[in-house]
Amino acid sequence: MTDKSITDFQQQALVLAGQQTSPDWLAGLREQGAELWSSAAWPSRKTEHWKYTPLAPLQKVGFGRWADVEADWQDQQEWLDIDATRLVFVNGVFHPEHSSELPAEVVRFGAAEGAARAVIEKHLGKVVDAEKHLFAALSNAWTSDGVLLHVPANQRLEKPLYVIHVSTATAEPATANQRLLLVLENGAQAEVIEHFVSGASEQNGFVNGLTEVVVGENAELHHYRLNLEEENILHVGGVHVDLQRSARLRAFTIAQGSRLKRIDYQVNHRGEGAELDLQGLYLPRNKQLIDYHTEIRHMVPHCTSKEVFHGIVGDSAKAVFNGRIYIHPHAQKTLAELSNKNLLTSNKAEVDTKPELEIYADDVKCAHGATVSQLNLTALYYLQSRGIPRAEAEVMLNFGFINELLQQVAQPAVRAYLGPRLAQLFSPNSELLRHLSYE
C-alpha cells in the first residue's frame, strides 16, 4: 500500500530499490537507506539547505526505471588524454570493453571478497551522514554495485584512477546510481579523477553520484570531480571525506549547470594536523542551475583548510553557493579560510551566496568572504584603449576570472583538457584565447 505522506518520486525510488539485486552483505546498508529515505521530509522552499534549489524537476518527470546502455552507443566521448587506470560506466552500467584491466587496489563491490569486502563493510555508508543528507540515504538504498579503491599503508597508487560516468539520452526518463569508496591507509598516496559526461543530445535522465573518502594518517589524496554533462540532465552528487592525523587532501571540482545540479562537499578533520585545499569553478548559462553546498568541520586542533570557489553566471542562469566552516570547541590552533567570488555577465543572472563561519574555540585564525560583481569597467576600457574589440575584451576578462584557479590545477592532463574547452565555452571565435597554453 502506498504511503501518501511521501512524494511520488520518493515512492518511485523505493520501487526502483526493490528491483535491484546486490550481494547479501549490502542488504543492511540498503535497508537502512530505504528506511531513512521513506521517513524523511521532502525538501521545500522552507528547508534551509534547499531554499534556493527547487526539486520540482524530479517531481515533474517520472523516473520509474533504471537506465540501460543504448545499443548504438559508441566510445565517442572526449576524455582526458592521460595514462591512468580507466573505468567506464554508461548509464550506471559498467563497460569492461572500454575500461582498463583493474589493479589489485581497485575492486568492484560485486566482485569483492575477503579483505576488500571487509574494507567496504567497514567504511561504506560510515563517512557520509545519511540522516543529514537525504540523497545519500537514497544512494544507500540503491547501492547494488560500486567501486572501491584501497591503497595499503605506505604505498603509492602507480597510476591515477580515472572513473568516467557517461549519460546517454534514453527512450524514457531513467535513473543511474554511482558509488565510489576511496580508502587510503596510513602513509598512502593516490590520485583520482571522476568525470561525468554526456552526449550532446538533450538528456532526460537522473544521476545520483556519491563518493566517500577516508584519508589515513599522513596519507595524501589528489581528487578531481568534473561535472560537464549536457544542460538538461538532473544530477545530485556528494563528496564526503574523513581526514585523519596529518592527512592531506587537495581537491578540485568544476561544474556546468543543468536543469538541476546539486553537489555537496563535506570534509571532517578528525586527526590533528590534517590539511585541506579545496578549489571549485561553476559556470551556469542559459536557464541552468548549479548549487554547491560545502561544510568543513574542524573537530581537533592544529588543522588547516583553504577553500576557494569562483563562479561565472550568465544569461538567465542561477548559482547557489553555501560554504560553512564549523570549528569545534577542541579545535584550537585552527587555520581556516573560505572565499567565494562571483561574476555576473547578465542583468538576468542570479547568485545566492552564503559563507558561514561558526566558531566555538578561541585560539583560531579564520576568514571568510563572498563577492558578487560585474566586469571591471576600468579594465575593460584599458583593453579597448589598446585596440582590443569590446567583445574580445569581455571574453578575456571573463576567462581571466577563472583562469586564476585553472592554472593551479596540479594534474597537467586535467588542466590541458579544461583550458581549451572553457575558452571555447566563452568564445568559439576568440583568436586570443585559442593561443593560450595549458600544459
3D structure, described in words:
The protein has two domains: 8-391, no CATH class; 392-439, no CATH class. The protein is 21% helix and 36% strand. The chain is built from nine helices and 19 strands. Strand 1 and strand 2 form a beta hairpin. The termini are far apart.
How are the secondary structure elements laid out?
Blueprint: H1 8-18, H2 27-39, H3 56-60, E1 85-90, E2 93-94, E3 106-108, H4 114-123, H5 134-142, E4 147-151, E5 161-167, E6 175-184, E7 189-198, E8 206-215, E9 220-227, E10 234-243, E11 248-255, E12 260-269, E13 275-282, E14 289-298, E15 304-313, E16 318-327, E17 335-344, E18 350-359, E19 365-373, H6 377-385, H7 390-406, H8 412-426, H9 431-434
Parallel strand pairs: 1-5, 4-6, 5-7, 6-8, 7-9, 8-10, 9-11, 10-12, 11-13, 12-14, 13-15, 14-16, 15-17, 16-18, 17-19
Antiparallel strand pairs: 1-2, 3-4
Helix pairs in contact: 1-2, 2-5, 6-7, 7-8
Question: Would you kindly provide a brief summary of this structure?
Answer:
This protein is an alpha/beta fold and 439 residues long. It is built from 9 helices and 19 strands. The strands form 2 sheets. A 10-stranded mixed sheet has the order 2-1-5-7-9-11-13-15-17-19, covered by helices on one side. A 9-stranded mixed sheet has the order 3-4-6-8-10-12-14-16-18, with helices on one face.
Strand proportion, as a percent range, falls in: 35-45%
> Which descriptor suits the 3D outline?
globular
Roughly what percent helix? 10-25%
**Mean pLDDT level:** 91
Which keywords apply here?
single chain, alpha/beta, 2 domains, 21% helix, ten-stranded mixed beta sheet, 439 residues
